[in-house]
Amino acid sequence: MNKLLEGKIAPVVVVVSVLIAIWYCFTVYLNTPWQLDRYEKAGTDWTYSQLITDTMKQDRPVLPAVHQVVVEIWQTTVNKNITSKRSLIYHGWITLSATLLGFLFGTILGITLAVLIVHNKALDKSLMPWIITSQTIPILAIAPMVIVVLNAIGVSGLLPKALISTYLSFFPIAVGMVKGLRSPDQQQLDLMHTYNASAAQTFWKLRWPNSVPFLFTSMKVAVAISLVGAIVGELPTGAIAGLGARLLAGSYYGQTIQIWSALISAAVLAAVLVMLVGVANNVVLKRMGMSQ
Amino acid sequence: MKFGTMSSLQKVLALIAIGASLAALLSPLAMIGETTVSTLSHPIAMTFALAGLATIIRFKLKFSIAFDGIMSVLGIWGIMVILNGIDKASFGFWMLLVAAWAFGWLYIERLSNVTGLNVFLTRLIGLITPVFFGIWILVLWEAITRGANVPFVLLPPPSMVWVKITTSLSILWADFQQTILKAVLSGYVMGCGSAFLAAIAIDRSPFLQRGLLPVGNFVAALPIVGMAPIMVMWFGFDWESKAAVIVIMTFFPMLVNTLTGLTVATNMQQDLMRTYAAGYWQTLFKLRLPVAAPFIFNALKINSTLALIGGIVAEFFGTPTVGMGFRISTEVGRMNIDMVWAEIAMAALAGSTFYGIIALTERAVTFWHPSIRAG
Fold first, then answer.
1. Within this chain, do residues A272 and A175 fall inside the same structural domain, yes or no?
2. B354/A138 Cβ within 8 A
3. Minimum mean pLDDT among B34-48, B96-110, B153-167, B353-367: which range?
4. Of A10-14, A39-43, B197-201, B345-349, which has the strongest mean pLDDT?
5. Is residue A73 part of a domain?
């Protein structure tokens, strides 16, 4: 028992169950006014236990109960055909494909920039401050414009969303990789120098292997942020498809359960993506003999 | 100062500059109506191109670094003058642009390779280089959009955006007040403040700490912006709902970072405080919070961007008819792209200022930290 308390699992389980309990309390509290109003109009008598169960059964609650969201997710994933417009898997896949494409572009762009910055002093001095400034610009705010403008010149679908994800995800990769490519210390660089290694050889045999742990750490941040970009990128397209579109449609029609189920599935998607990067990290580092 | 000899990259850039200057002199510059004009009819551009061609002697003589900078500025000047009088740019114009760009790059390249300077000059160069680079981005943007007649909806030239900014200051100010001053700042202060207090409270219980750190890390990676429609439903259209989104977005990064920061103080340091008979609060304020400061400031910096994003995106889901997010989404619909860019410029300025203030405060507070002492 003591061992269980010292580990991470027990505290996490306790914290999560407390959060769920708080959620249920809020569900009852926030949905009560509407329910009371309902009773009054219908003229029915009510007891507290009845009130509590009824607050968790509303069609458009202010805050849906956890099990309502779970049921909705179950119905829109397992019980729906994947090609159906009401299937969350269909919407999730659309968001996921934009996320992955943007993440791929962002990773390539980030690594390229980092390599250039590490090898050229002028670029380091002129580009690096602007890369940092670029992230203080709330790009998500520009997302609708990028989407609409690209739409106007005939580029639509996956690419515009992926571009927003790219913009968001290149930054952590570039910054992390600059750090990683610079992580070999002077002794190691000097050793390469005594071997008469060229810049390319130093890069492939010293800098690149040294930067791999940094790459994976930044990829974890980048993939999560890339998903956010794809979701926000879907908002201005007029709610056609994707998790972002589900959010928007839900907010138009007051379908809170739909909003929450889209949110939770986005959360699960983010968790899975981050986990996958983590697994890839472990496998690669193990094969390179770098795992602790 | 040591200049050194020209590196191979510098040689390539110098050759590009010379070749492009020659091409600009020989090929048609631009179209005015149906007639073609040549570089020779524009005195500034002609001076620039001839001087550029003459730099072929640099392979024999040593040129001062400032010369390349002056050449680049002269080129920019010539390009701007030409842009005001033409309908469409031809090959010569683009060659002029390439030559001026090559001189600019050469300038930066040589400037950043100068060694053996004192601290002040190093800092000055560290400031000049990015500013010069930024100016060049604007020049390229202006020259390409106007020279190639890029459709206005696609990308308006910066000069047009600037005109829009100066003519609609009152609208921009109203939006700024609504979004930044009301929503973002209040949400940021509430979110970061409550997370900070929560972290100090949780820190006393190792059990809660172990449970909340993984959960907090998980939540910090979630697309919380998606909560925006729900918050708009709960708190109404005005700034309160935006502040609520920002509170949720900023809470977890701050919580996780503060908790991590509070674990940084080593046992040795804590023991020292104990030998001084320092109580919990004294240890907290004199030892643990100061060493946690780099982590806390890290969260404050991340949150400054998150707060702006949250405030603007939440406005897409419903606002009173004022606010930066509202303006962006409605003006995009009307294809008033210059107004959108004006808002973006303001958002960028506000974001950078916000970030800059926090970064400066960090330097003042954590002056002892190695990363700041070094630079």
1. yes
2. no
3. B34-48
4. B197-201
5. no
Element (H, E) at A280: helix A256-287
**What are the extents of the domains in chain B?**
8-150, 164-374
Q: Are residues A265 and A183 in the same domain?
A: yes
Residue A67 placed within a domain: no
| Domain of A28, in residue numbers | 2-62
Q: Assess A228–B contact: CB distance below 8 Å, yes or no.
A: yes
- CA nearest to B351 within chain A: A136
From the list B105, B207, B225, which residue is nearest A11 (CB)?
B207
B313, B338, B339: best to mutate for the A interface, most A CBs within 10 A = B313
B291-314 confidence digits (pLDDT tens):
898 889 888 988 888 888 888 888
B364 touches chain A (CB under 8 A): no
Interface residue A203 vs chain B (CB under 8 A): no
Contact between B129 and A11 using a beta-carbon 8 Å cutoff: no
A270:B109 CB<8 A = no
Among A residues 34-63, those touching chain B with beta carbons less than 8 Å apart: 62
Contact B332 A148 (CB under 8 A): yes
ipTM of the complex: 0.73
Nearest chain A residue to B150, by CA? A153
Q: Taking CB atoms and an 8 Å limit, are B348 and A129 in contact across chains?
A: no
A161/A24 same-domain check: no
What fold characterizes domain B164-374? MetI-like fold (1.10.3720)
Q: What's at A177, amino acid-wise?
A: M
Examine the domain organization and report whether A111 and A255 are in the same domain: yes
Residue that finishes a domain, picked among A24, A47, A62: A62
Q: Higher confidence at residue A51 or residue A181?
A: A181
Q: Is it the case that residue B243 has pLDDT exceeding 70?
A: yes
A-chain residues near B151 (CB < 8 A): 153
The total of structural domains in chain A comes to 2
Please tell me the predicted confidence (pLDDT) of residue B2.
42
- Residue A244: its chain B contacts at CB < 8 A? 226
Q: Is the pLDDT of residue B85 over 90?
A: no
- For residue A232, give the nearest of B112, B137, B225 by CB distance: B225
Say if residue A163 is in the same domain as residue A270. Answer: yes
- When the pLDDT of each residue in chain B is averaged and rounded to a whole number, the result is 84
Residue A154 lies in a domain: yes
Q: What is the CATH number of the domain that holds A157?
A: 1.10.3720.10
